[in-house]
Amino acid sequence: MKHPVRFRDDDPLLARVRERALRLPGATEKVSHGRPNFRTSKVFAIYGATVKGDHHSTRWDRSLQILPDADERAALLDDERFFEPAYTAASGWVGLDLTIGTPDWSEVDELLDMSFRRTAPARLVAKLGTLS
């Protein structure tokens, strides 16, 4: 079954996330399950999230899913901007609602970096130190 597209390509929040995610070494973008997925050999970030059992909800369409370090997860979820996304939360992922307040893009960079380090091959993680 083909999934419907669940994002707008002209979304300015997506543009900012895309810019940040794709500057990581070896990062590419692929639409999967109707959402932009940022990946190397594995997915390290997803733009948008689904409410389990309600694929028509748009509540978290403008959010960012990342895989944080295990010791950071609980602290992130204590913040009202973060939530447990359907399906990926069982594997430790969290979502950041980008529509609550103004996104802190430095924080987004840190979250992308953390998730990238957890999922990317060591050879690509090693290249992070060479970025300016």
Task: Provide key terms for this protein.
132 residues; alpha+beta; 6-stranded antiparallel sheet; 4 helices; MmcQ/YjbR family DNA-binding protein; YjbR/MT2646/Rv2570-like; YjbR-like_sf
SSE order and pairing:
Elements: H1 12-22, E1 28-32, E2 35-39, E3 43-47, E4 63-66, H2 70-77, E5 82-83, E6 94-97, H3 105-119, H4 122-126
Antiparallel strand pairs: 1-2, 2-3, 3-4, 4-6, 5-6
Helix pairs in contact: 1-3
CATH architecture: Alpha-Beta Complex
Query: What's the helix count?
Result: 4
Task: Report on the biggest sheet.
Answer: 6 strands, antiparallel
Identify the CATH class.
Alpha Beta
The Cα radius of gyration reads 14 Å
Alpha carbon gap, first and last residue: 42 Å
How many β strands by DSSP?
Answer: 6
Provide the residue-averaged pLDDT: 92
Poorly predicted regions are none
Order of helices and strands: HEEEEHEEHH
In which range does the helix fraction lie?
25-40%
CATH topological fold name: Aspartate Aminotransferase, domain 1
Strand content: 15-25%
Number of domains: 1
The global form is globular
Taking strands numbered 1, 2, ... along the chain, how are they ordered across the largest sheet? Answer: 1-2-3-4-6-5
Estimated structural class: alpha+beta
Descriptive overview:
It holds the Pfam family YjbR. This is MmcQ/YjbR family DNA-binding protein. Helix 1 packs across helix 3 (about 105-120). The protein has a single domain, classed as Aspartate Aminotransferase, domain 1 (Alpha-Beta Complex), CATH 3.90.1150.30. It starts with 11 loop residues before the first helix and ends in a 6-residue tail after the last helix. The chain has helices at about 10-20, 70-75, 105-120, 120-125; strands at about 30, 35-40, 45, 65, 80-85, 95. By secondary structure, it is an alpha+beta fold. The longest helix has 15 residues, at about 105-120. The radius of gyration is 14 Å and the shape is globular. The relative contact order is 0.19. It is about 30% helix and about 20% strand. The model has no long low-confidence stretch (mean pLDDT about 90). It has a 6-stranded antiparallel sheet with strand order 1-2-3-4-6-5. It has 4 helices and 6 strands, in the order αββββαββαα.
